[in-house]
């Protein structure tokens, strides 16, 4: 894209700047639009699971419901509690929403459709996702209210519990692919099993890692059955209790952008990303980004399916699963995977 703007007479620096801005908008704008539509899809899936209709009034088939909700919160007044820390209270939702968008900079939609194809893309994702919890903690602390504060404490413990396991799971993928670059990880999955299956998920040593990564993704994004930070039967609405108007909407958008990010990571790290499921030439006629979007939507369906059918965990169950099951098992598989790769001469 930089060369295109240079052909219009721009200097290299200006051409790079304009092309970068265009790249950001090409990711951010469709992402925000897809978040609005994915909320509609989420509600429709829940309704179908419960034999209800779901949104069906605003627009054809209810497609404009999310936009109507967005207009409603936009027109509402932003209320800041009198005892709140006003600065942190207003910064927290902005931080959550911004970090949710920043992580998408290194996600490969196709072999050459990526904003920043950096060698440490996976480390960048882990860094951004670990910062995301600060939005929740700041909101709970700044609200100066009992239930949001309880929610902030839960969020910090939940983040630590599952990010450790995610780190060990990611190490297994990095060991096998030999790179932190997400495009490189996708290419390492080409014909990975029997020379025809694209994806680490079909590898017997990495399949358990994918199952744990999927469950940890639910916990990391605070989705049911791990939505202890906003358990309405215990904490009213958790860290969002004191928020209204666009501040509340920013949390809502950030939450769904993070859910889509985790769906994209499941597809990229274990299911071949933008590669077709099988390494058959005719399947490559379908553009890579179509395969990628289909995989992301499949995982979003799984996320919604789980939320509609699985009851919420107790907090002690959440902690036990993270520390007593996922942590030792993921650490054991790091040893097994690295031992297997050493024994077979993979590192030679």
Structure overview:
With 348 residues, the chain is mainly α. The protein has one domain. It has helices at 2-7, 12-49, 65-75, 86-102, 121-131, 133-142, 146-177, 182-188, 207-220, 232-235, 245-270, 288-309, 315-343. Helix 2 (12-49) packs parallel to helix 12 and helix 3 (65-75) crosses helix 11. The longest helix has 38 residues, at 12-49. It is an enzyme of class 7 (translocase). It is found in: Cell membrane; Membrane. Keywords: Cell membrane, Membrane, NAD, Oxidoreductase, Quinone, Translocase, Transmembrane, Transmembrane helix, Ubiquinone.
Q: Main attributes?
A:
membrane; transmembrane; transmembrane helix; 348 residues; 13 helices; oxidoreductase; 0% strand; NADH-quinone oxidoreductase subunit H
Helix percent band? 55-70%
Our measurement of the CA-to-CA distance between the termini, rounded to an integer number of angstroms, reads: 38 Å
The beta-strand count equals 0
Low-confidence stretches are: none
Q: Looking at the structure, what is the overall shape?
A: globular
Mean pLDDT: 87
Number of domains: 1
Order of helices and strands: HHHHHHHHHHHHH
Number of helical regions: 13
Radius of gyration: 21 Å
Query: Pairing-aware structural class of the strands and helices?
Result: mainly alpha
Strand fraction: under 5%
Largest sheet: none
């Amino acid at each position: 894209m930089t060369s295109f703007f240079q052909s219009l007479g721009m200097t290299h620096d200006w051409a790079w700047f304009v092309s970068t801005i265009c790249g950001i908008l090409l990711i951010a704008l469709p992402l925000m639009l897809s978040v609005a539509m994915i909320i509609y899809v989420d509600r429709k899936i829940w309704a179908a699971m419960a034999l209800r209709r779901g949104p069906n009034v605003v627009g054809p088939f209810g497609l404009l419901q999310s936009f109507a909700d967005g207009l409603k919160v936009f027109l509402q007044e932003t209320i800041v509690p009198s005892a709140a820390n006003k600065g942190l209270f207003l910064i927290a939702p902005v931080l959550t929403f911004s970090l949710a968008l920043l992580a998408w900079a290194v996600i490969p939609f196709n072999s050459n459709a990526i904003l920043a194809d950096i060698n440490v893309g996976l480390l960048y994702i882990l860094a951004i996702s670990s910062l995301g919890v600060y939005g929740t903690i700041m909101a709970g602390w700044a609200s100066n209210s009992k239930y949001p504060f309880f929610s902030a404490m839960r969020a910090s413990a939940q983040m630590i519990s599952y990010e450790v396991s995610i780190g060990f799971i990611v190490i297994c993928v990095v060991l096998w692919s030999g790179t932190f670059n997400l495009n490189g990880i996708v290419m390492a999955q080409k014909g990975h099993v029997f020379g025809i299956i694209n994806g680490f998920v079909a590898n017997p040593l990495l399949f358990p890692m994918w199952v744990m990564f999927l469950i940890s993704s639910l916990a990391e994004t605070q989705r049911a059955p791990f939505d202890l930070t906003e358990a309405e039967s215990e904490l009213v609405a958790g860290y969002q209790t004191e928020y209204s108007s666009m501040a509340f909407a920013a949390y809502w958008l950030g939450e769904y952008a993070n859910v889509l990010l985790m769906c994209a990571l499941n597809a990229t790290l274990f299911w071949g990303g933008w590669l077709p499921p099988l390494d058959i030439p005719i399947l490559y006629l379908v553009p890579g980004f179509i395969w990628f979007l289909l995989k992301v939507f499949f995982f979003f369906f799984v996320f919604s399916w789980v939320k509609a059918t699985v009851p919420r965990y107790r907090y002690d169950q959440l902690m036990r699963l993270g520390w007593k099951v996922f942590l030792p098992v993921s650490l054991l598989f790091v040893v097994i995977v690295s031992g297997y790769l050493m024994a077979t001469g993979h590192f030679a």
